[in-house]
From TrEMBL:
This is TerC family protein. GO terms for cellular component: membrane. InterPro entries: Integral_membrane_TerC (IPR005496). It is a multi-pass membrane protein. The chain crosses the membrane at residues 12-38, 59-76, 82-103, 124-147, 159-178, 190-212, 218-236. Keywords: Membrane, Transmembrane, Transmembrane helix. Pfam families: TerC (PF03741).
Amino acid sequence: MDYLLQLAASPTAWVALATLIVMEIVLGIDNLIFISILTNKLPLHNRQRARRIGIGMALILRLGLLSTIAFIVQLTNPVIEILGHAFSWKDMILIAGGLFLLWKATTEIHHSMDPAPEDPKSATSTVTLGFAAAIGQILMLDMVFSIDSIITAVGMTEHLPIMVIAVVVSVLVMLLAADPLAKFINDNPTVVMLALGFLIMIGMTLIAEGFGAHVPKGYVYAAMAFSAAIEVLNMMSRRSRQKRVATEV
């Protein structure tokens, strides 16, 4: 109890908490984009439930990993060497997660360009399998993003209460933003392609980091912000043209 009171009275602890919350929210954007795109492929009545399950699993994984900080720190220790390059468990997890993101984003782009006709006879089995597959894929990426998130938290502060608060706050923000973001992506088809492009970039970044090439997150998010700004201008331009055509008619 005295430890918590001393922590609460420390200005440095509050600064660390604020900084870590912002970092965790930013790191959660990748996770949230993936969840939004994936759940939008499900039937309408299952989407919100799948999003909540996915974000809930992200919270459980993050808190579970926080309880094993000693183990998480060891994930950065080299365990295998290939062609003179040492790989840790973290590196291999990042590479696997990056490859999965590349595969998933490329597959979704292919389906968007050449959608397969739906077979009415197998609609029921498709819905069930689709929901289970979506949860499984969300769980896999939750694990990758959770490990990255917790290792970042461990690197920024040594106080477990600060880590726990930052993780809980960031996941609550994800929960609040999930439905509006998914609706926005669903209502604007061109945004889907942009978001899939983001996932490809994030996948490449994860693979690069797994091979030891540090990619500053600021560059990645600056590119995402610039692309999103251009897309907003395109959307405004399309709406202006639609209004002009409607007025002329």
